[in-house]
Amino acid sequence: MKAAICYEINKPLVIEDGVTVAPPGRGQVKVRVAFTAVCHSDLHFLTGEILSPLPGLAGHETSGYIDEVGEDVTGLKEGDTVVVGTVTSGCGRCYYCTIGKPHNCVERHAFMAPKHKNKKGVPLALMAGPVGGFVEYTTVPQELVTRIPEDMPLDRACLLSCGVSSGFGAVVNRAKVPAMSSVAVVGTGGVGLNSIQGAVFSGAYPVIAVDVLDSKLKTAKTFGATHTVNAQKEKDPVKAVRDMTSGRGADYVFVTVGKVEAIRMGFSMCGDMGMTVVVGLAGGNMAAFEPMEFVFTEKILTGCGGGSLRTSVDIPFLVSLYKAGKLKLDELISGHYPLERINDAVESLKKGDALRNIITF
Ligand SMILES: [Zn+2]
Ligand SMILES: [Zn+2]
Q: pTM score, two decimals?
């Protein structure tokens, strides 16, 4: 089978035939990959901003068909249409699963053992999560797989495994934004647009899109942003957000850009008693905060990984929202690329041209 392998950071991925994958063991399934979207989290690994052993296999926003089920797999059978992502449905027994937070299941870190080998038999490390989606077949624990209705288009469905759910879930699951709150979303790419969709769904107003590109802000308006701030052109973007929120600052701020400067700015845009949620991965650098910024303001700075997803509930819900015309997915797709052209898809995302590029198998 073919895969796009990362042998060196910042070098084109190598399309290699003759790759093998382990058959599904106990509790695992083998999936025939139909589509995998390229996410900024993949870029963080492919560019070495976040380090991973090499050679490696990235890709984690995947949809496809169950090809084979291992022992003790329940609720999945050959031929099922599925979404495969990084968020676990949980073991159902640990502390976090028991309190209804299965995305934080204590067993979630156990899924990173390599399943693929290159044509020379060298194991391929999993990059950007436990999926290994830039390949024709992958084997994963059943906890990473969610069955979806057969009539859901699979190239739309793959977006639900990370980009859409990370943005939407940060608003709806993590912050639980109440109606009539004000929301600012810093970074309106493939994740931020979905925080905007989540804010609109939650009944927030205003919904302020903050970005440095006018083209992205224009798109943000089509996803429901009521106000926009160009953080590069605006002399004081923090004041601009405060002016739009009765001088208070936004009640909820979602930072979907993986940059500490954006986190710092987003926190300043947040009003007293408000919550700033860090959604984008920002490896390495440090951001500075004064303790007094927290004490009397009671501001909360927190994070959200993968939309705090309860996969078995949230992914089918997002599918039904899409089918009802209440969730935009078609508009998130910038292009389809066959596996052979994956490097073009990666480059276009790097340049900021694309929301989501989808690799087709
Ligand atoms: Zn992702
Ligand atoms: Zn658990």
A: 0.94
